[in-house]
Fold each of these.
Amino acid sequence: MCRAVCVLGLLALCVGITHSWDFAVSLRNHIIFFTNGTISNDVLLFNQNPTALVYDETQDRILYINKQSNDDVICGLYIITRDHKCFTERKGYNIHSFAFDPVTETIFFTETRTNNIYMISLNFSFTGIVYALDNVTPADIVVDSCQGYIYWVNKLINGNRKLLERGRFNSTGREVILKSGYFQIHDLAIDLHTQNLYYFDEFDGFGYINSLDFGAKETSLLELHAPSTILTVSKDYIYFTRSNESEDTVWQLPKSARLHIIHPELVKKMDNVKILGIVANYKLVDQIKGIQGCESLTSLLSKPVVPASVDEQLNITVSKNNSQHSNYSFNDEELPKSR
């Protein structure tokens, strides 16, 4: 009994430590956590190239793409235990980006060889095609867990002008949100609290960080004079990276910024390394607080975090809540056909 109480106390202390991070970046073989610009945790991942980081608060894990010579898999790092596991099989996928809906426990990813958007339902152990895009190549992707929408970017090739699209989880309601004549959109981030999408809009090494609200009103926040690579959003900031031959840097910009008014602040400089991914510690439960249409999700996401690997070590049985989206949920008849 004493041992169990002591172990639980130690785990509680670990939860407090790991939950204090502001953002995390991935390098080859590493995921590094930062608090106030200082490294607070460094996890070694042998022989892995973790990119496209996503934080899942329900299991306190960082999901990522392990890029491996055009045979990519999606994996997860459990922050408390430092264990990791993969959720896709090696099938020759070239995965550009992915997103995770914690409510239905579903991963959506874009695959650039087949031009498909796939889903992996962790509840149903199911993989299928959500959208077959044929004449366009999907790139970056995010999800709106309240309304059950996927938003994705199409690469600007072969005269394509449908740069930003959305569709529902069940393969219906596909529509173009944003078109462009010359610029290339990349690296989407979504904030349900402000109801905005954030992204880079670049052409020939010059462009902007823009926001697009769910009413399709576009706003430029920052003018860029050098290429930038990856962005993520927290409660207060947009974090983004820049890269050159000798160093990679992380910058932050207040979400309240407007063009030519506020300058970004350098947060971290990393010499002789390549940043592969970045993610902010911005929980979905905080994003949807007070947002109309998201009320029923709050109780689902407010449960204490006890990762599955910790459950097994302590022999604790945790019942999972299989409640569904407020506006959309899967059932067996609506699941896309498996490949």
Amino acid sequence: MTTNDNLIASGAPDRGKTTSSCVHDLSSAVSSETSSRLHRSQDRIPCIATFFNAHGDREALVSLGLDCDAVFSKTFDVQPMAKQLRPKGKVAGKGTGGQYKLIEASEEFGLRMTTQRELQARYPGDTPRDDRVPVQHCAVDDATSTVLLTVKLLEDAAEVHGLNSLEETGPPRSVWPPNGPNIRIVSIDTESCVMPEDMNPVRGCEYAQYISELGGAFIDTDTIRAHPDDWQHHITTFHAVVAEHWDHHPNLRCQESMKIDHTQAYYPRDNASSGPSGCLQQLKTFLVNDKEFSALMSPDSEIIAHDHCSSWLLEKIDQPGV
């Protein structure tokens, strides 16, 4: 298992580096010999991280003890990149600084997602699910959608290279598929929750937040080059539900946005579609503080203790790809 300490010893870049939101920086990173040299001494595949709204997820990962600057040679926020490459699209129409959702950005690039509300309406009760469309606010599905969006951005950047709408002077040439050494493109998403007793009185979203889910996905540029026409089917995913908070809901403002009923016995974490088992479910039994719980979840989902989140992520990031 890889640790933060030996990653730092292998020559990780200095602290204080910034998260880039420029699509040309992203294109350069996946074809950069510099990125490849950072961890070559340990025979690790060098990794870059892409987030949708990097600030929130990076902050959550830091709270778990994960040193992003040690693990990743570069980090990117892909949220602003959709505006760069779709200057006349719906998300760009929200104006400078306007916020938009991953599901909205995905749709601009021909990718599909579904909402929690749509999922519950289509598959009420115990109705088996028969599609693999990623679900909004499911950690592994959000991470998978971010990887999909990242690679689509790279593909589009190569196609529209040199457009005046890209506010760069003499940007490096983007190519598809990415050339250069093998680079692992990793996306990690976290989902947060609040304790039921904290939601009285009602205060919008001003509650103490706890990590309830971790989801990740990655694809190597060697894999993209080997499968340029169907790389979407070669993404590696990993998903964990944090045992201490498996049944807790997001804050009330988030629930209102997703049309989630906070009076449900527990938040639906049985909706993951990203993973080898697709939308299959199985009954899982686990212990939390010596108390036994059972819940339907994806066979691919793991249940881990909060204190194991950082080491679990490091192990999954370094696993072999598909």
Amino acid sequence: MGIISEGDAKAVLAPYEQELLACVEEAWKVWKGKAASLVSRPRSRWRAGIVSGLIEEQVRMRFGAMKSVHLIDKGERLLVGVESKLLLRFKKVNEKLQTSNYPTRTSRRFDNQQPLEGYADLPRLTVGYRANRLATELLEVVLVFSIGSAVKFSWPLVGAARPQQMTLPTQTANTQKTGKKRRVTAKKTQGPGQKDGSEGEQV
């Protein structure tokens, strides 16, 4: 069984993360810009197949010439071998970061990290991508290590698909530093027909 720790997986994949992310993001841009307009209401299976094919094109273009990366193309499955230490596949995932493979014997053994004839007995990780329900937005791209349906660890590929949010300082934070609260007084306005000293509407 192919087992790897989160720390070891991150160490191996750190030099490749931005290219892995770009494979999905660039494929998604092509899907949104061209392919999505071909059908008014594309079925999810058709859409997933198109996006998968576009991702494969990006993988071949970006990793095909790398000596430390080996592309394994068998049937309908393209795997990326990285430094002879682990295997990667690209798949659509749900909110629980689980794939939706049809449960064939081969897919079950693959997901369970069990040996498969013709494949090196290495840990297998998924470069998972998740879109919103209407597939109009790419929500996140995540590296996932699972055994069966159980996600053992995962981490996001930081980029345009999963932007980092900036936390702005709040008034509460500022008052904690000074120890004083700022008093805000409503401004009085003089309305038509009012005499000096009478209160108008407070803003």
